[in-house]
């Protein structure tokens, strides 16, 4: 089915609705759908506005936070450059290098461990630690400052606590990375370590080589920054956005994580990190543990650190969901109130119309003693007044037409009976038969006797009726007469249950159908033509009589035209020389009603089948008895 046919069916279905349903349908189309559409568009625009505002606001917060982190790292970088301008620090480092160089040279010559000069070491250590305290006072918040000579001897201040226990291992790692820096500061991502207080800590570090006046390396400075300096800003950011954040370096290593579960780990293969690659800033949606989240990221141009904040959609849309719910509740309440008013209005408007429809059904059943109560002078009131006048006029016309139809049917029955009631022919044939017997011509006498029986059966009063058994006997006589003329050419098969033998019916219904079959269906190629007559009662106790033959049959188009003519109440064209199938059908409809009559069809293997439908026996008897009483048929 194409779209146009479907639309036509839908349109016709709407047009065929009851009036109150049409009003409700119009209400839904005109009010409900526009309100719902407006609510949806409003919610969509509001949600999109919230999303755009959140992205812009969060991006701004991220950039500001990263700017503060960059400033902090810049301060750490400047702190790492202080030894380059402090001759005292360089002097003490040179003293430390000389001391350990002398110790190493002495041990090589003596092959023994040389005792340490504690006084000299203590002087060097106090001098460098004093410089470290000076550095700590310049920038508070740095967790620890470490200064190493070129032999790896470390100096630090333990006043703040939290000194790395793996200081030598850290020095080797830092020195390896800073070796190729050429004196520039090197930024190390978050590292996990155990402090001297036996606690696990995390810090990121700025490392720089210390040069003397001739630009030769004389040591190394490392500035540790505890991640607490980032945590405070991230916590405020997460609180404002209702999300969670993570900071990673250019290699995907975690600098900071809101949950502290992935600190100092690599998450380069995480789908969120992969999705943010290739852009300095942006946003995208991604599901995390089955929950849809909005991810916003920005990258620091100085450190190449990237911060990604993940905001659950339900948190992002919390305000819009509240607005949506309030909007929908208000919309549904408005629609509900309007729907109730529309239902009341539609039923009030259509109640008089339904009353008029019930009165029309009553009139349709033949009762014209009805009247529509006119209470108002609107269109429905005027329609009711016209309805009342119409009923009165129709009742008068029906009485006139009823009388005319009764007279017409009486005349038609007289005319039909005249066609099949030739008295003079019967009397003449009876005289001829007697002469044939006197002359000893037995065959002619028998033929005349059979033909006389046929004519005698057709002679009777207009109001007489017969039985199914007599009708079938009339058919037997007709076939017998044909076999006198054409010996053995016709065979008659009768199937009549005994309980149907006395079924009452009008005269001369079966023989004309058999005559039609012989006249039109006789096949000269066959030696014998078989004609069957079968009667039975269906499940409704309706009588069906079937007459079939194995003759030439009838073309499909002719069958269709014949069956179409059977459905017409009146037929004016009578066939010459006989009653004809149309005449039989018309007589049955006149006597039994328009629901009864003939139906023709093709027979399997060749030939034609004609079925006759009769009412139940009780109804048939009452109808035959009431032929002279048309008023007893109601409003038909």
UniProtKB/TrEMBL annotation:
Entry's Gene Ontology molecular function annotations? phosphorelay sensor kinase activity
| InterPro entries listed in its UniProt record | Bact_2-comp_sensor_kinase (IPR050640), dCache_1 (IPR033479), HAMP_dom (IPR003660), HATPase_C_sf (IPR036890), HATPase_dom (IPR003594), Sig_transdc_His_kin_internal (IPR010559)
User: How does the UniProt record describe the way this protein sits in the membrane?
Assistant: Multi-pass membrane protein
- Where exactly are the transmembrane stretches of this chain? 23-43, 326-350
Superkingdom in the source lineage: Bacteria
User: How is this protein annotated for GO cellular component?
Assistant: plasma membrane
**Keyword field:** Cell membrane, Kinase, Membrane, Phosphoprotein, Transferase, Transmembrane, Transmembrane helix
Which residue ranges does the record assign to the HAMP domain? 347-399
Q: Does the keyword Acyltransferase apply?
A: no
Q: Where in the cell is it found?
A: Cell membrane
Q: What is this protein called?
A: Sensor histidine kinase
């Amino acid at each position: 089915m194409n779209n146009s046919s479907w639309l036509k069916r839908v349109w016709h279905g709407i047009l065929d609705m009851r009036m109150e349903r049409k009003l409700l349908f119009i209400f839904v189309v005109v009010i409900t759908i526009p309100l719902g559409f407006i609510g949806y568009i409003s919610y969509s625009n509001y949600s999109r506005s919230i999303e755009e505002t959140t992205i812009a606001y969060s991006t701004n917060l991220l950039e500001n936070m990263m700017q503060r982190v960059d400033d902090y790292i810049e301060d750490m970088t400047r702190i790492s450059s202080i030894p380059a301008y402090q001759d005292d620090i360089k002097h003490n480092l040179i003293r430390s290098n000389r001391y350990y160089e002398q110790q190493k040279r002495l041990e090589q010559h003596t092959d023994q461990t040389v005792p340490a000069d504690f006084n000299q070491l203590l002087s060097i250590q106090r001098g460098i630690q004093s410089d470290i305290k000076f550095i700590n006072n310049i920038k508070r918040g740095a967790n620890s400052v470490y200064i190493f000579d070129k032999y790896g001897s470390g100096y630090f201040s333990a006043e703040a606590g939290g000194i790395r226990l793996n200081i030598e291992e850290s020095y080797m790692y830092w020195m390896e990375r800073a070796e190729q820096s050429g004196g520039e500061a090197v930024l190390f991502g978050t590292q996990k370590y155990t402090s001297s207080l036996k606690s696990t800590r995390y810090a990121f570090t700025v490392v720089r080589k210390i040069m003397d006046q001739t630009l030769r390396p004389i040591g190394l400075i490392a500035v540790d920054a505890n991640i607490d300096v980032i945590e405070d800003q991230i916590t405020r950011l997460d609180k404002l956005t209702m999300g969670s954040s993570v900071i990673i370096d250019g290699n995907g290593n975690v600098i900071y994580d809101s949950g502290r579960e992935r600190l100092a780990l690599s998450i380069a293969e995480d789908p969120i990190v992969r999705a943010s690659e290739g852009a300095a800033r942006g946003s995208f949606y991604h599901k995390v543990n089955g929950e849809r989240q909005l991810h916003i990221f920005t990258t620091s141009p100085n450190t190449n650190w990237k911060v990604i904040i993940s905001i659950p959609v339900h948190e992002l849309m919390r305000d819009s969901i509240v607005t949506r719910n309030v909007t929908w509740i208000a919309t549904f309440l408005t629609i509900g109130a309007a729907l109730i008013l529309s239902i009341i209005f539609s039923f009030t408007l259509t109640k008089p119309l339904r009353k008029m429809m019930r009165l029309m059904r009553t009139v349709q059943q033949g009762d014209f003693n009805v009247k529509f109560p006119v209470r108002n002078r609107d269109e429905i009131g005027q329609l009711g007044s016209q309805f009342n006048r119409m009923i009165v006029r129709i009742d008068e016309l029906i009485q006139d037409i009823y009388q005319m139809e009764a007279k017409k049917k009486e005349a038609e029955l007289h005319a039909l009976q005249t066609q099949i009631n030739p008295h003079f022919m019967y009397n003449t044939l009876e005289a001829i038969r007697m002469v044939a017997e006197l002359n000893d011509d037995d065959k002619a006498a028998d033929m005349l006797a059979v033909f006389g029986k046929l004519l005698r059966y057709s002679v009777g009063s207009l109001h007489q009726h017969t039985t199914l058994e007599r009708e079938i006997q009339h058919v037997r006589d007709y076939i017998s007469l044909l076999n006198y003329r054409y010996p053995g050419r016709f065979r008659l098969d009768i199937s009549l249950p005994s309980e149907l033998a006395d079924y009452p019916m009008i005269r001369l219904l079966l023989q004309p159908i058999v005559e039609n079959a012989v006249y039109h269906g006789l096949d000269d190629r066959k030696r014998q033509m078989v004609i069957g007559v079968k009667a039975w009662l269906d499940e409704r106790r309706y009588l069906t009589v079937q007459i079939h033959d194995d003759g030439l049959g009838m073309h499909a188009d002719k069958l269709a035209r014949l069956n179409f003519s059977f459905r017409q109440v009146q037929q004016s064209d009578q066939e010459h020389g006989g009653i004809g199938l149309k005449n039989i059908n018309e007589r049955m409809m006149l006597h039994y009603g328009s629901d009864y009559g003939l139906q023709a069809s093709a027979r399997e293997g060749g030939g034609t089948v004609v079925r006759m439908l009769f009412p139940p026996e009780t109804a048939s008897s009452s109808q035959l008895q009431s032929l002279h009483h048309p008023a007893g048929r109601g409003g038909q």
